[in-house]
Fold this protein.
Amino acid sequence: MIVLGIESSCDETAAAVVRNGHDVLSNVISSQMALHAGYGGVIPELAAREHLRNISPVVQEALAAAQLTIADISAIAVTSSPGLIPALLVGNAYAKGLAAAQGIPLIGINHFLAHIYGSFLGQPEILADRSSYPILALVVSGGHTAIVLIEADGSARILGSTLDDAAGEALDKAAKILGLGYPGGPVIDRIAKTGNPQAYAFPRGLTGAGGKAVKPEHRYDFSFSGVKTALLYAVKDKTLDEASLADAVASYQEAVMEVLVSKAMTAASDFATPLICCCGGVACNSRLRVLMTEETARLGRRLLAAPPKFCTDNAAMVAGLGWHYLRKGLVDDLAMGVEARLNRSLGVLPFAIG
Ligand code: KG4
Ligand code: ZN
């Protein structure tokens, strides 16, 4: 079965065609980054207007790249939550219209779960292998930072999440403070390579570092507001030359990535998870990938880090996850709504063994 995926939850208009949940036939992304760069963040109404302009050509391009027509599509999967409401509405209205016109099923997709599924695209054997479970997922994007435990029967729960900013948001805000543009993650990744990560002693929130005890209920939670404020004060009223800027960036990135890795490893150890996956836009970060590789090896676990094109927002992860719901008959109807917030009860994930 071939699923057309549509993604419009934030600032990427994306469409992809995926066969049987894993075989990515096309993956088209139209980014609005340049449009929002001047504002230092995504403006929902502007994003919606751009989605409206781009959605039809992007879907047509995805079908053409897959050398298919809409008549070959078995179902349409569309991100319906969480995300920016005006942006989500465009993709949903388009998907509903297309599904109704074609008389094919519509499947609403949780973007957070789609990011997790992005790690497994093209890896059906890992999902089918009982020894992979329980799986630990570190979800790190511009909107979310969470640790999720996935059991072989598909039950999943969020062990911890951020109490304030998401990791990507912390990077984007730091870039704004330093005048590096939007989005901050990729530019921080690049500049950090030339700096000294030990130059500034930035706080590691909710880790116990610095002698501040962590309450047991926050063992797997994150907080990035402290490191952001520390950066703000460290550079306030200073003119940084290129080398000191690189040092500040490298130290900041190190503080964020170290916390992500240390919390993920604590959870992996506590729950004896043989497989750890890392997904979402921040999972593109080269330092995070190095640290995750080193620390999972040290713990004797397996790391699954998706290729960067399936880490940042894309519709292949949406179409792939959609197929798993479709084969179980879990489809939606035209009354389906959109939601801005993540529902913390993740339901049963359809891609586990079951
Ligand atoms: O998953 P994503 O594309 O969108 C959301 O669902 O939020 O993630 C976007 C986030 C942004 O905050 C961006 O700065 C970050 O991912 N990002 C990176 C890198 N590439 C993108 N962060 C660190 N290093 C990167 N190389
Ligand atoms: Zn995303």
In short: The beta strands are 2-7, 12-19, 23-31, 75-81, 106-110, 135-140, 145-150, 156-161, 275-279, 302-305.
